[in-house]
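Because showing beats explaining, we think one record worth quoting, sequence and backbone structure tokens together, and here it is:
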Amino acid sequence: MPCDPSTESGTSPWIFPVFLPHAGCPHRCVFCDQHRISSVQRPLPTADEVHDSIETALRRPIDPVRKREIAFFGGNFFGLPEETLRSYLDAVSPFREEGLIQGIRCSTRPDSVSDAILEWTKAAGLSTVELGSQSMNDTVLEASSRGHRVSDTIEAVERLKRFGMAVGLQLMVGLPGDSPDIALQSAQIAASLKPDVVRIYPTVVLSGTPLAEQYMRGEYRPMTLEDAVSAVADMTEVFRLAHIPVIRIGLQASEAMTAPGAILAGPWHPAFGHLVASRMFRNRLTAELDSQRFTGDVLAVAVHPRDISRMRGDRNENLRFWMDRYGLKRIVVRADARIERNGFAIEPAAIDVHSKPSILTNGSAEN
């Protein structure tokens, strides 16, 4: 049974990011500090610097099967002056002509997408545009000082598809005015637009942001880690059922993010994506067991070897959940390479003891 929270295939694109923190943004959203999120503190790179950094990156060993892309992230790419945009895309052009780079992607605001800019950026090699939609709820967008509306995202997606561009949507959970129910509705609306990929980030309170001021005044209450994990697992399930890959869950752990005092509050966890993937295993296996009206005191499950820890959950929390829910005496999680990634199979309780399973019994775990 598939339970795919992200694209983890070895054939996923090799993406070299060029960070442009806050570049082109008309104003600052309440939650945002791209310098800290991207761990980039210096001024915007020149076109020559972009060219040189790509050249250096391409010297590293790269799986020849993987598509290679350059990504301009961290700001509102289409909000940059046209001269700057052209210089960046021109810097990538030699690598495209040599076949060393097959695609260019960028992140931008939904209300910055126009026919005029798409015409020439597509001709210059831009192939994927990720929209910083953040939410598909106007109340949440307004409370977060986004400056755009849901209709802008819908119109931008339609326009990008008309131009034959791949579309990504970036969503957040836990913004001011958000809730698990609103976040789920947001995912459902986003999925109906049929984007090519999605990223989901939890909202954390970064020091020095307007949201930090709201938090200190008691005007904003962040989601708990439990609520955020549960909400994002439900959101990701919506996209899984719609066959839309979620290519990123959670913020990247960086030196700037983990520095003392950088994060004041919120559902920060360096392995947030793993927690979400584990919750999805829990939700789907629980639904399957309930549908089977499972009885018995031993549960045996087989998963792909790389999914053992996801099925068990952080510190065996999934195993303990099922022990309590079904009154089990023993749970066996066995590795089986024949099982597809992010899938599972419920097995007869009698298993081959030589398969070195992961066992939980009487409140203790054995690896």
Q: What stands out?
A: The first strand starts at residue 14 and ends at 19. The mean pLDDT is 89. The chain has two domains: 14-278, 295-366.
